[in-house]
């Protein structure tokens, strides 16, 4: 379990994180979400012990985070980088040793994980010979080879094909079953919505919203129409009754303004296109993100420190 | 601490267990020899060339040509006499003859003789001809005046100095100046090459880990100072191993292989000299390695790293540019100044110690200054490294980098 209490961090004149508090419990997948420059990387680096917070405290299993806790943490950064000239097995052993494991002790688990990822035959090959997807998998193995209690995954699915993505998903769910705490940072809201037990959405270093998916969705109510249609639905994007609209060629998700009836909006749509299917539901996490954050670039998102 | 040893071991393995290290270990001594020993060896070889040189000669006095030819033959320069000057010139321009010497009729009075070659010719051949020709003519002139050339040579011979070393116990030992100069030059070159090569390697390695984000994974396991020290010490061990191999090879060649083939390489190889080499090597390495690591962490890309490294390179290049003046005048004010200025001290003091044996107080002061500077540089470098290693997206200047010292 990891807990942050009123944690803040500044660099020169930039306040990267302001009074962030949350708890990621044992065996849960916790989503740390936010646009670029929101302060996610700084928050993760503080939890990893790379940065010291200016104020507030970080607790690991109820005790203040100390240097030796690093051995019980696994980290998969967003941008992957391994020693290209080394052999796969040597890299994995080296990184596990840096987590306090002995080579002999960790080798069987490395072999098991390589087999799980269909990479056992690549064990003695150099990292530079691997494809991008293979390198991603190796990096994921390095994150969990030392049997951590908590893992930080920053965009773990980027660059993976659907089959590898499913396999990784199964592995993450398996880790959750084993009681490992997973802190997931991702831009893909659909994935976060499906995977995370709880989330924290931050922007400009501050909490925007937090809680379980149910709590967050209940807060927004069933005010979203998901509609599948046939015809030219360009007009849907500019409906005045909507707070925000996500539109695809044959599908749209419309967040209604307060006081607007769903039937009234459906009638307007039906006049212009044929509705194949519709559903009135709580907004998706994606819609909530867009509603709360808006266009981060338009607001001038700060650089991640 | 165990993690620091793991980083040291892995850095050593990554540096020493690859092809580039093996190639450099083999080629390094040749590179150093090419700069220090080879010019001297080539010069001595060229005076007695293996090859025979065919030189045309045009002269009226056949006896003189015979006398000159006999002497030059010992130096493998064969004279080819010809009666037609134009034919001889064509044989030179056609490459058949190495050169053409024209001996004027009144050669006893003439001060300048003509020597034709195709394109400048072999300098050592022309010098050999000039020497022999001059010797014969001067002897002839002395004889014509009724003087004994042998007696004149004896009377005009200048005495030379034989250098002796007296150690602290009062024992005397012959010491060839060339031996000392050669060893000073070789040792300085070895430190210079190793510090530059391994410094660059540390800087680039830190930069690579920063740009590939590998450092983020490392920092989630160990502290930034453990990474920096692990890298410096790991690569330092590789540098010591490589230099150790070079020194062993040098001793083997100088003491065993050289004498077997009749090749005498002048080199003052003593235990004391090796101790000085080792100590200044270690001090120079750690002084510069810490700076290279910090600048590698502060750089954004390789081009930026090279820009940041300019002041460092200047400090390393200055003693090498001044090496001959330091060797020939080791007690000059400038040599003494640079032997105490910490960034040039390892090279300059080493040369002074080998060539001039300065007082022990000066040597100890130099060691003290260097150790203190290394301590300060390590503290400053660790601070810059800690901040810089996670700073991306901008090319920072020195002012900005120095501001990290207070973060």
Order of helices and strands of chain A: EEEHEEEHHHEHEHEEHEEEHEH
Show unreliable segments of chain A: 296-305
Number of helices, where a helix is a run of at least 4 consecutive DSSP H or I residues of chain A? 9
**Number of separate structural domains of chain A:** 2
For the termini of chain B, the CA-CA separation is 25 Å
Mean pLDDT of chain B: 84
CATH class categorisation of the largest domain in chain A:
Alpha Beta
What share of the residues of chain B lie within helices?
55-70%
Q: Evaluate the radius of gyration of chain A.
A: 22 Å
Fraction of residues in β-strands of chain B: 5-15%
Q: Quick one: overall form of chain B?
A: elongated
Tell me what the structure shows.
The complex is a heterodimer of chains A (305) and B (407). Chain A is globular, with a radius of gyration of 22 Å. Chain A has helices at 40-47, 88-98, 103-116, 132-144, 162-177, 189-195, 213-220, 262-272, 285-293; strands spanning 2-11, 14-24, 29-33, 55-60, 63-64, 73-76, 150-154, 181-185, 198-203, 206-212, 224-230, 242-248, 251-256, 274-281. In chain A, β1 and β2 form a beta hairpin. By secondary structure, chain A is α/β, with parallel strands linked by helices. Chain A is 32% helix and 29% strand. Chain A has two domains: 2-211, Rossmann fold; 222-281. Chain B has 407 residues and is an alpha/beta fold. Chain B folds into two domains: 2-36 and 175-406, no CATH class; 43-156, D-Maltodextrin-Binding Protein, domain 2. In chain B, 69% of the residues lie in helices and 6% in strands. Chain B is built from 18 helices and six strands. Chain B has helices spanning 2-16, 19-35, 38-47, 62-73, 85-93, 123-144, 149-156, 177-211, 214-219, 224-260, 271-298, 302-308, 310-321, 323-328, 333-340, 345-356, 360-388, 398-403, and strands at residues 53-58, 77-81, 99-102, 114-117, 164-166, 172-174. In chain B, the strands form two sheets. A four-stranded mixed sheet of chain B has the order 2-1-3-4. A two-stranded antiparallel sheet of chain B has the order 5-6. In chain B, α4 links the parallel β1 (53-58) and β2. The model of chain B has no long low-confidence stretch (mean pLDDT 84). Chains A and B meet through β6 and α2 of A and α1 and α9 of B.
């Amino acid at each position: 379990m990891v807990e942050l209490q009123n944690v803040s961090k500044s660099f020169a004149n930039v306040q990267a994180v302001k009074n962030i508090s949350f708890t990621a419990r044992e065996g849960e997948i916790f989503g740390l979400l936010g646009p670029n420059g929101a302060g996610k990387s700084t928050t993760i680096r503080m939890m990893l012990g790379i940065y010291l917070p200016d104020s507030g405290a970080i607790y690991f299993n109820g005790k203040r985070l100390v240097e030796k806790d690093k051995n019980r943490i696994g980290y998969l950064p967003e941008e992957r980088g391994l020693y290209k000239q080394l052999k796969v097995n040597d890299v994995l052993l080296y990184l596990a040793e840096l987590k306090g494991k002995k080579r002999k002790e960790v080798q069987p688990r490395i072999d098991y994980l390589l087999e799980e990822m269909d990479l056992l035959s690549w064990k003695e090959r150099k990292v530079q010979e691997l494809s991008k997807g293979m390198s991603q998998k190796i990096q994921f193995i390095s994150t969990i080879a030392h049997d951590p209690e908590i893992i930080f995954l920053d965009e773990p699915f980027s660059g993976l094909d659907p089959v590898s993505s499913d396999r990784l998903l199964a592995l993450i769910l398996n880790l959750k079953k084993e009681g490992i705490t997973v802190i997931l940072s991702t831009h893909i809201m659909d994935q976060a919505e499906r995977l995370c037990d709880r989330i924290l959405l931050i922007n400009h270093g501050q909490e925007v919203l937090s809680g379980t998916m149910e709590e967050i969705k209940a807060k927004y109510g069933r005010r979203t129409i998901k509609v599948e249609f046939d015809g030219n639905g360009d007009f849907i994007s500019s409906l005045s009754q909507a707070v925000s609209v996500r539109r695809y060629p044959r599908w749209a998700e419309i967040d209604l303004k307060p006081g607007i009836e769903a039937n009234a909006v459906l009638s307007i749509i039906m006049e212009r296109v044929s509705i194949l299917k519709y559903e009135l539901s709580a907004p998706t996490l994606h819609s909530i993100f867009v509603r709360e954050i808006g266009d981060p670039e338009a607001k001038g998102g700060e650089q991640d420190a | 601490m165990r993690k620091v040893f793991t980083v040291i071991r892995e850095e050593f393995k990554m540096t020493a267990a690859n092809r580039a290290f093996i190639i450099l270990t083999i080629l390094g001594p040749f590179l150093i020899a090419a700069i220090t020993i080879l010019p001297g060896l080539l010069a001595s070889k060229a005076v007695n060339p293996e090859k025979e040189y065919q030189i045309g000669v045009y002269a009226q006095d056949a006896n003189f040509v015979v006398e000159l030819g006999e002497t030059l033959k010992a130096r493998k320069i064969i004279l080819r006499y010809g009666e037609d000057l134009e034919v001889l010139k064509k044989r030179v321009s056609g490459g058949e003859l190495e050169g053409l010497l024209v001996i004027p009729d009144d050669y006893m009075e003439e001060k300048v003789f003509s020597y034709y070659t195709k394109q400048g010719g072999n300098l050592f051949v022309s010098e050999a001809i000039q020497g022999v020709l001059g010797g014969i003519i001067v002897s002839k002139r002395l004889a014509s005046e009724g003087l004994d050339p042998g007696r004149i040579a004896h009377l005009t011979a200048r005495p030379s100095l034989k250098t002796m070393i007296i150690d602290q116990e009062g024992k005397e030992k012959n010491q060839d100046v060339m031996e000392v100069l050669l060893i000073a030059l070789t040792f300085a070159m070895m430190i210079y090459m190793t510090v530059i090569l391994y410094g660059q390697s540390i800087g680039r390695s830190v930069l690579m880990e920063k740009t590939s984000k590998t450092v983020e994974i490392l920092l989630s396991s160990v502290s930034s100072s453990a990474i920096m020290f692990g890298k410096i010490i790991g690569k330092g061990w590789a540098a010591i191993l490589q230099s150790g191999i070079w020194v062993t090879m040098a001793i083997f060649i100088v003491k065993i292989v050289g004498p077997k083939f009749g090749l005498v390489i002048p080199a003052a190889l003593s235990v004391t000299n090796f101790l000085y080499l080792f100590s200044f090597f270690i001090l120079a390495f750690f002084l510069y390695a810490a700076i290279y690591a910090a600048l590698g962490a502060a750089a954004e890309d390789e081009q930026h790293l090279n820009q940041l490294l300019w002041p460092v390179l200047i400090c390393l290049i200055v003693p090498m540019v001044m090496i001959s003046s330091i060797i020939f005048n080791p007690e000059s004010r400038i040599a003494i100044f640079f032997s105490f200025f910490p960034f040039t001290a390892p090279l300059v003091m080493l040369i002074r110690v080998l060539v001039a044996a300065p007082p022990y107080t000066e040597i100890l002061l130099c060691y003290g200054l260097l150790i203190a500077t290394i301590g300060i540089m390590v503290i400053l470098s660790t601070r810059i490294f800690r901040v810089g290693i996670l700073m991306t997206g901008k090319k920072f200047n020195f002012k900005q980098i120095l501001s990290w010292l207070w973060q």
